[in-house]
């Protein structure tokens, strides 16, 4: 079993991780996959006395994580760091005209990983961003997002991190049900979408 007694598991990212968490409650997990993962692990391993933190913030990009990493990651001394970032880089390009190149995204992501490795003895979990082609929405972000997914995969290999390959998993799930069933706007998961992320996350860490 990968988890040890008193492990501290931190979920970091944007709105897909945030999902309405209470900013005034340090232990609030929101209503999405962090809560689902914590519930599952708490059920399976009560003797481990695991602690869970959610520090996702809606609208964040990798550059925002860089600015708050000392406070919202390193200071918490997690033994597991789960990072889910990248879709807002595409959103800001197409809706706001602010582009983040793959090179800049990689440099920002490396900053997070390097600081974590230098300060903590923590296992890393990198989660791919995804986007789905929801009917009725004028959104095709693949040209921008695909290189960033490539960056996440590359860094997972290089830093020997666990990878949660969401982009392919959501594409495959959209064969079983309409894309909007998994993410109504193609980005933000429904409860079923969060359950998909939860199962993929647990599989990546070796929990069935």
UniProtKB/TrEMBL annotation:
Domain (SGNH hydrolase-type esterase): residue spans on this chain: 13-196
Source taxon at top rank: Bacteria
SUPFAM superfamilies: SGNH hydrolase
Pfam families: Lipase_GDSL_2
Protein name: Lysophospholipase L1-like esterase
Organism in which the protein naturally occurs: Paenibacillus forsythiae
